[in-house]
Amino acid sequence: MLRNYFKTAFRNLWKTRSYSLLNIAGLAVGITCAALIFLWVEDELGYNQHFPNKEDIYIVKSRQTYDGVTYVFEATQGLLADAIQQEVPGIKQAIRMNWVSRELFTVGDKQLYQLGYYTDPGFMDIFSLEFVEGNRASAMNTINDIVLTQSSARIFFGNEPAVGKMLRLNSGEEMKVTGVVRDLPKNSTIQFNWLIDFKQYARKQEGLTTWGNNSIMTMVQLQPGASLHAINRTLLDFVKNKTNGEVTFSRNYLYPIDRWRLYNNFDKDGNEQEGRIRYVRLFSIIAWVVLLIACINFMNLATARSEKRAREVGMRKVMGATKPALVAQFLGEALLLSLLSALLAILLTYLFMAPFNQLVEKELTVRALTPAHLGFLVAIVLLCSLVAGSYPAFYLSSFNPITTLKGGKQKTGAAGSVRRGLVVLQYSAAIILIICTVIIFQQVQYVKGRDIGFDRSQVLLTSLRGDMVNHMDLIKTQLLATGSVESVGLSNMNILHIGGNTSGLTWDGKDPGQRSLISFLLTDADFVPAMHLQLKEGRNFRPRMQGDSQSILVNESFARLIRKDGQVSGQTVQWNGSTLTIVGVVKDFVYNDVYAAADPVFFYPFQSRSSGLMNIRTKAGVNLPQALTRIEKVIKDNNPGYPFEYDFLDDTFNKIFRSEMLIQQLAGVFAVLSVIISCLGLFGLAAFTAERRTREMGIRKVLGASISSLISLLNREFLTLVLVSFLVAFPLAWWIMGNWLADYQYRTPLHWWVFALAGAGALLIALLTVSSQAIRAALANPVKSLKEE
């Protein structure tokens, strides 16, 4: 009997191969979309899950409240790690880490920049690093030891053993390789190419031995069974107690590393709120929606062709087939279609994996169908078979055999209503995706187009290396002499990412209870003109900072913080024991959070230091490749020991929108695919409807109906369904995007015409899809159609 079912199934597939092809293609595309999205979701959910001790690994965070807003920082004091390891019960070990550093290493005549951490040796224990050369006991025992990852060791030394080899840091220190560890998985928040003892970093830094300086990360591993609640209660006022109440702003607590990637976002009260996990949930929903749309297509086409198989059902019932047997047959056909779709989906997934990886900037692989992936695919096939085959199975098996064998037609009102409802459902989902994609695009463009307070175009950023800062006047002169450069300004950080901040500023009239967090940037006199910042009051720093060592520039937000009228030129503020004079006010500009209003910031004179950035503005209309060649020559001539590397400020700005752009691109791709899948189903239903109404069309044509009226008659039903879909999608999309935009302080308004255009577009696509079948039916010879009927 099973063999007979399969023979019948294959025969029906071949007999209705055009409909079968539509079903298989639609379902395959749906499964492929779901597979790709769920691979991305699997990777995101797997972040930091591979560490053996993940449940005991935490990062120390600090809650600090300024002007009624609680900020959460990962920056902690250099003294904190040793103190809490010795004094807080339950902490197995605590380590210090700097923010990831980009250092230049030299091996022979090879020079390479590599990312890594200055950290304590306990890092290797906390994160259970696996050694492929050397061992834990001999690694990082002195400040001139370095541990490499397997990939970086291969870059430096090829296939030769790396342990015992020497590397030279750009600062001149000779570093000995004492270990090579296996690279961490890509879905790890902690990524590095090298590790060097933190003491090497600490001896070059000021402030790490004071409790008032928060500038490094602290990671801890707890003892098994330790009470997180008790430890956090101790950490809350730990710094305050250690300093006898002098440092009160830092209220520390432990944050689990396995939530670091997806939940690391906090509201104005310092409480955790959804971060990247929102995107994971969003795309999981999109995957299921696209898959559901594909299943709806199968269900609609199967029920639509039910009348064609009525005689078969009647004959089988007369021959003794039971209803369960008929249900099994039709579910089996659905399973066969799903299996064929799944096989095609596997092929499509492999084919589209590379472009999908490029889109999401990951290195996802199917890994030859692991048990987890295979289980997922089986579940999808069974789910699709049940969802897509259940209604046709029970519907067809309920036909009256006597009526069907006599040629009578079954009542199809309920089936038709279900089909229409499912068409509305799938088209509503497609329209919602289209609307969401357009509004996300609008939001990104709205923020990109806002007045950010400076001109980010034509600005090249390159790091100050070696002793460049000691002969900057010469370098600036030579750069300006190239004819390609308009101006050159110095800063310690990128203007878009100002990381320095302080709460230690005071001024006359400041409320003793007021605690304000104010950012600062170290700049020279050429920075303001190089960035095209606008002076609103006072003056810029004097050339070469003559007489301005104790002067600062402030933005309008800072000026309003000091005085309501913002007139602050000549006023003084106190900071770190020095009295600073405000000599000028610049127009507010956007930094750090491009979606928010400008925060207070001040510019402090650039110190003689080896680290920082040159902000080089090229002239408008200049030949860029030629300008880069000239700039590179000047910098290499003055600093031959370092390779020339650069970024454009415009590119840095665009990278800020990476998450939003990813959402927009993925939503856009799957919106298009959902429309295509919906159109496949609509095309199939239109073809069936035209076939079912052949006789009616023939009679109408004989009675004088025009071709245009026949086309309109056939189109009307489907276009009405699309219109209803739009009416359903409109309020849902408005609610979804209204909630999404509410998270942004600076956001685009919702425009009614976006929704109208999405509806009109869906209507036009549907019209083009069904019209081909309507035209074909309207142009058919009525004599032939009536004779066949």
From TrEMBL:
Q: Where is the MacB-like periplasmic core domain?
A: 20-233, 507-633
Q: Which domain of life is it from?
A: Bacteria
**GO MF annotation list:** transmembrane transporter activity
Membrane topology designation: Multi-pass membrane protein
| Record-level GO cellular component terms | plasma membrane
Ranges of residues in domain ABC3 transporter permease C-terminal:
285-401, 669-778
Query: What are the transmembrane regions?
Result: 21-41, 282-304, 325-352, 372-396, 417-441, 666-690, 718-738, 750-770
Q: Where is the signal peptide?
A: none
**Which keywords has UniProt assigned to this entry?**
Cell membrane, Membrane, Transmembrane, Transmembrane helix
Main location as per UniProt: membrane
| Annotated compartments | Cell membrane
The UniProt entry, under InterPro entries, shows:
ABC3_permease_C (IPR003838), MacB_PCD (IPR025857), Macrolide_Exporter_MacB (IPR050250)
Report the PANTHER family cross-referenced here.
Answer: ABC-TYPE MACROLIDE FAMILY EXPORT SYSTEM PERMEASE COMPONENT 2, MEMBRANE COMPONENT OF TRANSPORTER-RELATED
Name of the protein this chain belongs to: ABC transporter permease
Species of provenance: Candidatus Pseudobacter hemicellulosilyticus
Its lineage reads: Bacteria, Pseudomonadati, Bacteroidota, Chitinophagia, Chitinophagales
